[in-house]
Design a protein that fits this description.
Length: 90
């Protein structure tokens, strides 16, 4: 199954939105069953984005996962990029 990288950047000053929505986001990751790995992007010691690697059937399925992310619904992200990704090492 293809892999997709979901790269999200938070809106400036939105850390509290991230913290308030984190449990719902983690449940989305857990319950979807397609997340291979995930974690926050760190800038200046603070969570300011997300990197999620999905095992999805196609780009549309990856987009649907990202659209359903509670972080998106909460308005956390300034930008979201989704691209197919090929694992080479690790």
């Amino acid at each position: 199954m293809p892999l997709f990288a979901v790269i999200c950047r938070d809106k400036p000053g939105a850390l509290q939105i991230r913290l308030d929505t984190r449990n719902a986001h983690l449940a989305h990751i857990r319950d979807s069953g397609i997340v291979a790995m995930a974690g926050p992007l760190i800038e200046e010691g603070e969570m300011r984005g997300s990197l999620v690697i999905l095992e999805a059937a196609d780009l549309d399925a990856a987009r649907a996962w990202a659209e359903a992310d509670p972080y998106k619904a909460a308005g956390l992200f300034a930008s979201t990029e989704i691209t197919e990704w090929k694992k080479v090492i690790g």
